[in-house]
Amino acid sequence: MAETTVNRTPQETYTSVKGLLVQSKSRIVDEEAPHKISAVQGSLWGTTAKNAQKTVTFSLQEDASGTRVACKSVLTSGYMALTAVGIVFSVALMIICVWMALDLQAYASSGAAGFWGWLAQAQGSFSPDIAVLFSRLCWFLTAFLVATLLVEGAIVLRVKTRIDAFAEEIFKTLALQT
Fold first, then answer.
1. How far apart, in whole angstroms, are the C-alpha atoms of residue 113 and residue 126?
2. Highest mean pLDDT: which range of 1-15, 136-150, 162-176
3. Stretch 74-83: mean pLDDT, rounded?
4. Helices (H), the chain
5. What is the pLDDT of residue 111?
6. Where are the domains of the chain?
7. β partners of residue 27
8. How far is CA 47 from CA 20, 53, 81, 104, 162, in A?
9. In this model, does residue 94 exceed pLDDT 80?
């Protein structure tokens, strides 16, 4: 949770925060003027903490030195669901690729067709060269999917650890307006 204190009244601060949210093309989903405002900011396809889709909730509280503004940022369920579906799909495809590669390698070495043996046939007869080719292709796709999963994991970790980047940007702009 990020927070700051600005030397303004809660109503002035609320108006400024709302204006900045609208300016950043955020969709305001809840308002309790002048104490709280929530908005959905970012995109489902965002890959950085600043542009990943999240719900930001700004709470404003009058303080002796002005208005204390706190912001809680949470990734949206849509963003998390899309990420989870992508990971599940990648893992499922990776398992199929490993299965195909192992099956075709066994076919190439023993000549006994397995489930994926039909891929290694040319003109109705077994072709060890095609079996090896498809096996290597499957291993390549498996490596690509592993790399994709690692990158996706790194993106999610980075987004979660820097989730307040958008709020900090709003706070900097509020400080400049004072």
1. 9
2. 136-150
3. 96
4. 10-23, 77-110, 128-161, 165-177
5. 80
6. 2-76+162-177, 79-159
7. 40
8. 22, 9, 15, 37, 12
9. yes
Cis? peptide before 10, omega within 30° of 0: no
What is residue 55's predicted lDDT score, i.e. its pLDDT? 97
Q: Which residue has the tokens 């498809």?
A: 134
Whether 108 contacts 131, CB under 8 Å: yes
DSSP-assigned beta bridge partners for residue 66: 63
**What are the structure tokens assigned to 98, written together?**
């490993």
Distance in angstroms (rounded) separating the CA atoms of residues 20 and 175? 12
Q: Is beta strand 54-63 parallel, antiparallel or unpaired with respect to 36-41? A: antiparallel
Q: What is the mean pLDDT of residues 16-36?
A: 94
**First vs last Cα of the chain: how many Å apart?**
22
Half-sphere exposure of 14 (CA within 13 A, CB side): 16
Half-sphere exposure of 86 (CA within 13 A, CB side): 18
> Which CATH architecture describes the domain 2-76+162-177?
2-Layer Sandwich (3.30)
* Count of all residues that appear for the chain in the document: 178
